[in-house]
Amino acid sequence: MSSNGLLHDGIRYWARRSPEKAAVVLDDEPPLDYATLERWSDGIAARLQTMGVVPGDRVAIAAANCLAWPAVAVAVLKTGAIIAPMNDRLLGDELAYLAGYSEPRVIVADDARRALIEGAGVTVPILPLETVEGDRGGADAGWAPVRVDSESVALIMFTSGSTARPKGAMMTHGNYLAKFAEMRLLDGRLGATTRSLMPLGMHSSPGTPWGIFFTTTLGGTLYATRKYQSARTLATLARERIDFFLGVPMIYEQIAREPEFADADLSALTFARVGGATPTPEMLAAWRAKGVIVRQLYGMTEVGGGSIIATEEEARTRPMSCGRGLAFSRFRIVRDDGAPCDPGEAGHILLQGPGMMTGYWREPEATAAALRDGWMHTGDIGMADEDGYFTFLDRSKEMIKSGGFNVSPSEIEAVLMRLDGVVECAVFGVADEKFAEVPFACVTVRDGGPDADAIRAHCGALLARFKVPAYVATSVEPLPRLANEKIDRRSLKLRHAVLPGDR
């Protein structure tokens, strides 16, 4: 195949140029330097090939954050295969669904996820994460990575939608490399001196492409953690002089509440981004008082991440805006009929740019619905003022964003309906001080049917913790319906907007 730039090329370059420089630092463990990352990923790639992995195959990674994670991710790309990162918080049935959906040739898993996957009856060969520790010495002499085209799919990023199950956005090497160049144009201070802190899972969109591959393409150092803790994150920001940071509003708010925040030296933090939900003016002001200008962004996995990100100056002058767009990406705000909205008029958000996915994995109908006339139809609502500054207003009708995760109400509803005694249900998001939103379930049960505790226990056995309804309201009465017989979710949300203190 012909080949241009690939996501892992930067690692070989920096391994030659700065072999002893730290590529990834995980908590207090010895850093993973560029030479070791290059050599280790060669060894893992050679092992994957002996297991039958060829270009175009999917290799799933199901593991908590660890230093082997980036080595495995790089190794997958060196075989010409496609990374399929699995959320490490999912349970067995959820992991089994993703395995059936993406059909990986191999699943690389840590002990905890391996037990869940095997317990769910998945028959895909599993490469234990502990085994690849033996590949740090590299591949045999003469081994060489497979070169694919830059337009080949590099990652299948799982993203929840309005359907009951996640979809896989197919992202190419070129998608992300162009987005990386766009980010460099946004802030020229990014480069080999970049010290990036990623407090989320390596499986995520901020984790794999923007944590691992963006940082190593620049030649910088990525700081990660096994488990997010606000106090530890604040200490790392200050001690390691972090200059590139991304978090959801919840993370910024928690860090700002730490007692050490007032005296922490955050003067190095020149590029702080917030996404996943709309931040409060109070949170932005708290960080600004520390000399940190937190920049809002709007984007989605299907367009490679941030598609509209405020410059530092835009964030200073209009802190509640996401700015006016990036160098290569474009946005439109349109009415129901597709006509452009006037300044200040709310409408549907359409995105276009080099990070746009090639489509959803094996879902042509969903792809056709999302990608129309060269634009990504997000389903979200926003507006732009007379000067072109973009403001995000609301999410797609059903999606819940909880602690930075997309949560599909339909998926939760499908699990609820599997419980004996449940007649019907509706799940929606309600405001939460810590997580921005949490799921609320209204459930109609038969006389003598399950109570709220039983419902939550049922969900907890089948769903990741962040998907389990924080609130459950049960009744024997039917749920309210609209004229078209659909459940009236709006009236339910209004009815339950004021919540009790406990959950």
Provide a brief overview of the structure.
This protein has 503 residues and is an alpha/beta fold.
DSSP strand count: 25
- What is the averaged pLDDT score? 92
Structural class: alpha/beta
Bin the strand percentage: 25-35%
CATH superfamily of the domain at 1-173: ANL, N-terminal domain
How large is the count of helical segments?
15
At CATH level 2, the architecture of the domain at 1-173 is 3-Layer(aba) Sandwich
State the separation between the terminal residues, measured CA to CA.
56 Å
CATH class of the domain at 1-173: Alpha Beta
Topology:
Blueprint: H1 9-17, E1 22-26, E2 32-33, H2 34-50, E3 58-62, H3 68-78, E4 82-86, H4 92-102, E5 106-109, H5 111-119, E6 126-128, E7 153-159, E8 167-172, H6 173-186, E9 195-197, H7 208-218, E10 221-224, H8 230-239, E11 244-247, H9 249-256, E12 271-274, H10 281-288, E13 294-300, E14 305-309, H11 312-317, E15 330-334, E16 347-352, E17 359-360, H12 364-370, E18 371-372, E19 375-384, E20 390-394, E21 400-402, E22 405-407, H13 409-416, E23 422-432, E24 436-445, H14 452-462, E25 471-475, H15 489-495
Parallel strand pairs: 1-10, 3-4, 3-5, 5-6, 9-10, 9-11, 11-12, 12-13, 24-25
Antiparallel strand pairs: 1-2, 7-8, 8-17, 13-14, 15-16, 16-19, 18-19, 19-20, 21-22, 23-24
